[in-house]
């Protein structure tokens, strides 16, 4: 049993540390452009190169991913490490954009291969808990990264060097533990590409889009909604922190429920629960403590949707389809991230209530679709 759980612990730890560095890198790169005087539109356009890299890698990996998973993990880590160090030195706007494109490509390679490997080595009956712990720690990493960057906000290039050093350390850990990962990526079943998977398992991907929209809209727009509702900057930031804490620490209880019941049932419950929580936000802004509690629960249920999605893929699909399925999830996550913030931001220019109600509607529609269509 120890030999089974040690590679799981190493893999989760590697990806969690990786997410800390990526969260910091995304923030530091934005600060660098801001210090250079670029407009918000140009900064956003440059940042959009990362989701484009994510989308490109999601389309290509099912075709080319073969052989030892450990080699792909090391390749993704090594490429990302080099990209982060280069971002800390590059002065050109175009050069920074190209590096962020490479960053999206290499980062998604590690996530797709890492999640596939984790699904292949997780013992039967523990999929919900293992995938929920993984999901929660990765979410925590993305939250911790920007906090570290805030210490070096005046010199973001220093923060990037620190992120690069973390990645280099993780790379060394992965290389020294390569013998623990004998898992090989299997060729995808013939004719089972991403588009076919999207047609056969749309509920999984619709849930992914909802969580991606929630994730990116919350980080970028949730504080704006709270401030527009009349709350102070401090309460607004505390509420966002509560949401991120809930997204992290409620994942294990969600995982226990997934293993106790079924991923499909918990997927439906978390979709509906998130829609309900979000719809209460406008009613609770005059009660800050209740508002913070609602944000905590909403973060847990929203990312609980993704834990359930990963568990569905882990338990319902053959090993030959795992790379394709995780690539499809990565693709739809990228699309959801790419579209959600501009769309909700534009809607909030008319009425700030579009933030919670627009997201609540998305989760409600996803719930109805999953309830009617089922999880294939």
What's this entry about, in short?
This protein has helices at 2-35, 40-47, 49-64, 69-87, 93-121, 127-151, 156-176, 194-200, 202-228, 233-249, 251-260, 263-284, 288-316, 322-348, 354-373, and strands at residues 67-68, 184-185. With 376 residues, it is mostly helical.
Helix count, per DSSP? 15
What series of H and E elements makes up the topology? HHHEHHHHEHHHHHHHH
**Share in helix:** over 70%
Strand order, sheet with most strands: 1-2
> Terminal Cα separation, in Å?
31 Å
**Rg from Cα:** 20 Å
Superfamily at the CATH H level of the largest domain?
MFS general substrate transporter like domains
CATH architecture of the largest domain: Up-down Bundle
Low-confidence parts lasting 5 or more residues at pLDDT below 50?
A: none
- Strand content is under 5%
What is the C-level CATH assignment of the largest domain?
Mainly Alpha
What sort of overall outline do the alpha carbons produce when their principal axes are compared?
globular
For the biggest sheet, the summary is: 2 strands, antiparallel
Looking at the structure, the CATH topology of the largest domain is: Growth Hormone, Chain: A
Helix-strand category:
mainly alpha
